[in-house]
Amino acid sequence: MADLLKTLERDYEISGRRSLRQLRAHVKHVERFFGATRAIALTTDRLRDYIKARQDAGAANATINRELEGLQRAFAIAVEAGELALAPKFLGLREDNARQGFFERAAFEAVLTNLKDRDVVDFLEWFFWTGMRTGEIRALTWAAFDRETWTLRLHAGDSKTGHGRTLALEGELRAIIERRLRARRLDCPLIFHRRGRPVGEFRKAWASACTAAGVQERNMVRAGVDPVVAMRISGHRTRAVFDRYNIVAEADLREAIAKTSAYVRGLPTRRPKVASLKRTLQRPG
């Protein structure tokens, strides 16, 4: 099993896959559980044991699925290479991926005031206004910035979806880029950095700021932007994934009902009289 997992990591490295870091985190749990188990001896029952152990440890179904997907890929590589004749039947758990929280702008602004690191503040503001994936934001470089047109051109190779797109830097986005220009360093190509180094993990600082602001943890669609345009900006390729993140707030529901009620109240209460076509044709003149 350990050999299969090492081959899997090497395959990710050769392919230049951006999810290599996540894979290594997932592989760690798989390797710890199966240890020196022979790959040929892995059965579906043993996979069930793994699932149960991870659930008991508090892992979410989505996390367990990602871990098993990596293992499944490792077996597929071994079968393709002729090192194994068969792979076990892998199981998939039901996932509930809809985001449960909704962050209103007032709450977001309150949290930002409790964050001292201005580089992190810019990073989070960009995330708030664009909905881009954090990994994609971390990888943004000044090579994508066109100062003449004030746009960011994201190449397909830099996107998780493999599709390029262009962002017009207007309003808040332009203000953020102007701040990043002032913070630009010649020794760092990244737009968003922390003192010249890539923006790393800041969950603890975020959690502390949320606590200090007294808040618990998408706005384009609610502003009337066509979902297709919003998806182009955020980088989501499918409507299903976009909708998973597009959480509806209670205020949105109330507004929708109010708008519908106002529209219905404005409709005529009596049906208009429809003249007979036969009579119309018989009228003189």
Essential attributes:
13 helices; extended; mainly alpha; two-stranded antiparallel sheet; hpI Integrase, Chain A; 285 residues; single chain; 2 domains; three-stranded antiparallel sheet
Short recap of the structure:
The chain has 285 residues and is mainly alpha-helical.
Model description:
With 285 residues, this protein is mostly helical. The protein has 2 domains: 79 residues; 140 residues, hpI Integrase, Chain A (Orthogonal Bundle). Helix content is 52%, strand content 5%. It is built from 13 helices and 5 strands. The strands form 2 sheets. A 3-stranded antiparallel β-sheet has the order 1-2-3, with no helix packed on it. Strands 4-5 form a two-stranded antiparallel sheet. The longest helix is centred in the N-terminal third of the chain and has 20 residues.
Shape: extended
Number of helices: 13
Number of domains: 2
Task: Tell me the name of the CATH class of the largest domain.
Answer: Mainly Alpha
The helix-and-strand class reads mainly alpha
Give me the secondary-structure topology.
Elements lengths: L1 H14 L4 H15 L9 H13 L4 H20 L24 H8 L5 H13 L3 H5 L6 E2 L4 E4 L10 E4 L2 H12 L10 E2 L2 E2 L4 H11 L13 H8 L4 H7 L4 H16 L11 H6 L3
Antiparallel strand pairs: 1-2, 2-3, 4-5
Helix pairs in contact: 1-2, 1-4, 2-4, 5-9, 6-8
